[in-house]
UniProtKB/TrEMBL annotation:
It comes from Rhodopseudomonas palustris. Pathway: Amino-acid biosynthesis; L-threonine biosynthesis; L-threonine from L-aspartate: step 1/5; Amino-acid biosynthesis; L-methionine biosynthesis via de novo pathway; L-homoserine from L-aspartate: step 1/3; Amino-acid biosynthesis; L-lysine biosynthesis via DAP pathway; (S)-tetrahydrodipicolinate from L-aspartate: step 1/4. Belongs to the aspartokinase family. This is Aspartokinase. GO terms for molecular function: aspartate kinase activity; ATP binding.
Length: 417
């Protein structure tokens, strides 16, 4: 007997029929003798609708009220799944974040979990054989008593945090794909499922754009050494062999299974904006005068390229910020033009960042150079480059994203994994 957390994303609970399918998956694990806590997302599209309603009510709305609104999607699915489980004869009870409680920071709309009291749920496992059906994405800020949410995709993080708090054996993430692929399988049909991925690589994949898991959930998995298994909710529960190994991807502290591959996967993100500050004075302190105010405004700067000055007097500085922060970044820099001392502000929002990830890069030279040549052969211009130990990223025109991802996927032999 073991203890499991099973998380089901939006498409997996999109309607009553799918919720009943989820209930049969949960029953399968209960019948196999496991203690089960389930974490659910809102029905697919629901959170987008709720977010849009807040914006329609007022573009600049109170984040506390935004959280009160958007947390409601998960409340509905947790109750519905508890009903569906009860109708299958399974003892089940729904839990909202505040009822457990799942305590978070007060950073509304992107709160961080600071503590979870799993004692009542564990007590009910043993005393009542009860399944806990927990609303993902939401928590409560203890001091103010207000409902909080964990940022988009946050149910993954709820699930891993709950798994750690309940000391579960594993956290199963059921979604609309049957695992983590070498790249988004909806963009590259040749993408291959990976059997195993290390936390370290998954952290890079997720933070560089592979939205199959929220970044924070992988961080928590790593910190608590909680194995995460990504699998499909679309498999029929009746067809799953209780003693077999289902298709899926295990994310754990183990190295991945592709020992002969330098590259594990490719991620991409179109949520970037490029800014160039032209003809700034080439003297000490200039970078600080630009990046200091951006940091104060809580804007994350990612790729940075500074040209070597031709005349020894002025230079250009190019960098990227999240597209969502572009307007604020522009305002921050243009309003400080006199202080910084530059001639021109240029920007491009139609850009994408394509990243290649693999822990094998540590021991192999020239991996990035191959990519630059392959992209050049396709006439794809590189606007900026960053590298680190196990990944590198290039910034390109957004229109070439799919072509670049497919080119690199083939280049690194991932079509034939
Ligand atoms: P859920 O609603 O279950 O949380 P998401 O839509 O958040 O599901 O995440 C699953 C989606 O992530 C897939 O449908 C797929 O398009 C996308 N995705 C992006 N990169 C990858 C990848 N490397 N492997 C698998 N899926 C990926
Ligand atoms: N429902 C939330 C969202 O769409 C959380 C989640 O699905 O993980 O972002
Ligand atoms: Mg998700």
């Amino acid at each position: 007997m073991g203890r499991l957390v099973m998380k089901f994303g939006g498409t997996s609970v999109a309607n009553i029929e799918r919720i009943q399918n989820v209930a049969r998956h949960v029953k399968r694990e209960v019948d196999a003798g496991h203690e089960v806590a389930v974490v659910v997302s809102a029905m697919s599209g629901k959170t987008n609708e709720l977010v849009a309603w807040c914006t329609e009510a007022s573009p600049l709305h109170d984040a506390r009220e935004y959280d009160a609104v958007v947390a409601s999607g998960e409340q509905v699915t947790s109750g519905l799944l508890a009903i569906a489980l009860q109708s299958l004869g399974i003892q089940a009870r729904s839990w909202q974040g505040w009822q457990i409680p799942i305590l978070t920071s007060d950073a509304h709309a992107s709160a961080r979990i600071v503590g979870i009291d799993g004692s009542e749920i564990i007590k009910r496992f043993s005393e009542r054989k009860e399944v806990a059906v927990i609303a993902g994405f939401q928590g409560i800020h203890a001091e103010t008593g207000r409902i909080t949410t964990l940022g988009r995709g946050g149910s993954d993080t709820s699930a891993v945090a709950i798994a750690a708090a309940l000391k579960a054996d594993r956290c199963d993430i059921y979604t609309d794909v049957d695992g983590v692929y070498t790249t988004d399988p909806r963009v590259v049909p040749k993408a291959k499922r990976l059997d195993k991925v290390s936390f370290e690589e998954m952290l890079e994949l997720a933070s560089l754009g592979a939205k199959v898991l929220q970044v924070r959930s992988v961080e928590l998995g790593m910190v608590h050494n909680m194995p995460i298994f990504v699998r499909s909710s679309f498999d029929k529960p009746e067809d799953i062999d209780p003693h077999g190994t289902p298709p899926g991807t295990l994310i754990s502290s183990e190295e991945n299974s592709m020992e002969n591959h330098v590259v594990t996967g490719i991620a991409f993100s179109k949520d970037e904006a490029q800014i160039s500050v032209r003809r700034i004075e080439d003297k000490p302190g200039v970078a600080a005068s630009i990046f200091g105010p951006l940091a104060d405004a809580n804007i994350n700067v990612d790729m940075i390229v500074q040209n070597v000055s031709e005349d020894g007097k002025t230079t250009d500085l190019t960098f990227t910020v999240p597209a969502a922060d572009f307007a604020r970044a522009k305002q921050t820099i243009t309003s400080a033009q006199d202080k910084i001392g530059y001639a021109r502000f240029d920007s491009e929002t139609d850009v994408a960042k394509v990243s290649v990830i693999g822990s094998g890069m540590r021991s192999h030279a020239g991996v990035a150079a191959q990519a630059f040549a392959a992209l050049a052969a396709r006439n794809i211009n590189i606007r900026a480059i960053t590298t680190s130990e196990i990944k590198f990223s290039v910034l390109i025109d957004a229109a070439y994203t799919e072509l670049a991802v497919r080119t690199l996927h083939t280049l690194y032999g991932l079509d034939q994994v």
